[in-house]
From TrEMBL:
GO molecular function: cytokine activity; metal ion binding; tumor necrosis factor receptor binding
Localization per record: Cell membrane; Secreted
Biological process per Gene Ontology, one example term: positive regulation of extrinsic apoptotic signaling pathway
GO terms for cellular component: extracellular space; plasma membrane
Region (Disordered), start-end ranges: 131-156
Official protein name in the record: Tumor necrosis factor ligand superfamily member 10
PANTHER family: TUMOR NECROSIS FACTOR FAMILY MEMBER, TUMOR NECROSIS FACTOR LIGAND SUPERFAMILY MEMBER 10
Biological role stated in the UniProt entry: Cytokine that binds to TNFRSF10A/TRAILR1, TNFRSF10B/TRAILR2, TNFRSF10C/TRAILR3, TNFRSF10D/TRAILR4 and possibly also to TNFRSF11B/OPG. Induces apoptosis. Its activity may be modulated by binding to the decoy receptors TNFRSF10C/TRAILR3, TNFRSF10D/TRAILR4 and TNFRSF11B/OPG that cannot induce apoptosis.
Membrane topology annotation: Single-pass type II membrane protein
Species assigned in the record: Hypotaenidia okinawae
Length: 290
């Protein structure tokens, strides 16, 4: 008669394993090492089977609709769930990158359709004007400022690349720099004053004190506004030693201003009769910074 085999004891820890033979081997002759190797192979194969047993496309599409307590206890479902979350995250990131590129192209296209030229590197815009040694022709007649303004405008600057003067993408018109492009500009100017006392003056008066001079330099902007707009002004009252042959003074000022296309800037001075238009000492310029 056939001997009845003893029933295999149930193993509560192994109830979730894919094959019952594993529990049998726990009480059998197989070593723990063999058991661990078999567990590794078993779960590796079952993980791959999870991905091939059901169409992943449908699973990912319905990922948020199929969550339940029963499925959370299923190892195969957990593999699919984590993989689905990873795939959706990667797809979302790829979509955002593509949309950013599309929006950038669309903004560039709209700027073209609005009549705005495509952005290109800003052209070099700069000017440096130096004094003209022919002082008589450099200063405009007194009180000849356009509309209203103080001082006497310096009309003729040297701009023909002689010495240090130059013009880059800027026009000089009647002593005024014409701004070609809206932006922020650094404007600067220096005026050199040279004064010599009249030898016919009373010698007793000369020995006491030199006549003080009020020296003022103005930088104006011309727009469509009826009057010129004062941008900068620098002034000083100067006197010098009675033993000095000349009184020599210079006034410098500079600043950043927002200018619009077709604005014009110019320099005017007080006491134009003592202005020395030496090219290294009297100058005027501007350049675009942004």
């Amino acid at each position: 008669a056939l001997k009845r085999r003893k029933p295999v004891p149930k193993c509560s820890e192994c109830s979730d394993l894919p094959e019952l033979s594993i529990c049998e081997r726990i009480v059998g002759e197989k070593s723990w090492l063999s058991l661990l190797l078999q567990l590794r192979d078993t779960y590796s194969k079952s993980g791959i089977a999870c991905l091939t047993g059901e169409e992943m496309g449908n699973f990912i599409q319905n990922l948020d609709l199929i969550e339940s307590e029963d499925r959370e206890a299923d190892p195969c479902w957990q593999v699919k769930w984590h993989l689905g979350k990873l795939i959706k995250k990667m797809m979302s990131r790829s979509y955002e990158e593509k949309m950013s590129a599309v929006n950038a192209d669309r903004a560039l296209t709209l700027s073209h359709t609005d009549g705005q030229p495509p952005r290109s590197p800003v052209n070099r815009i700069a000017a440096h004007l130096t004094g003209n040694s022919n002082r008589r022709n450099s200063l405009s007649p007194r009180n000849s400022l356009p509309r209203r303004g103080n001082g006497q405008k310096i009309n003729n600057w040297e701009s023909s690349r002689k010495g240090h003067s130059f013009l880059y993408n800027v026009e000089l018109r009647n002593g005024e720099l014409v701004i070609p492009q809206t932006g922020f500009y650094y404007i600067y100017s220096q005026t050199y004053f040279r004064f010599r006392e009249n030898e016919n003056e009373d010698s007793d008066l000369l020995e006491q004190v030199r006549n003080p001079k009020q020296l003022v330099q103005y930088v104006y902007k011309l727009t469509n506004y009826p009057e010129p707009i004062l941008l900068m002004k620098s002034a000083r009252t100067s006197c010098w030693s009675k033993k000095a042959e000349y009184g020599l003074y210079s006034i410098y000022q500079g600043g950043v201003f927002q200018l619009k296309r077709e604005d014009r800037i110019f320099v005017s001075v007080s006491n134009s009769d003592i202005v020395d238009m030496d090219k290294e000492a009297s100058f005027f310029g501007a350049f675009m910074i942004a």
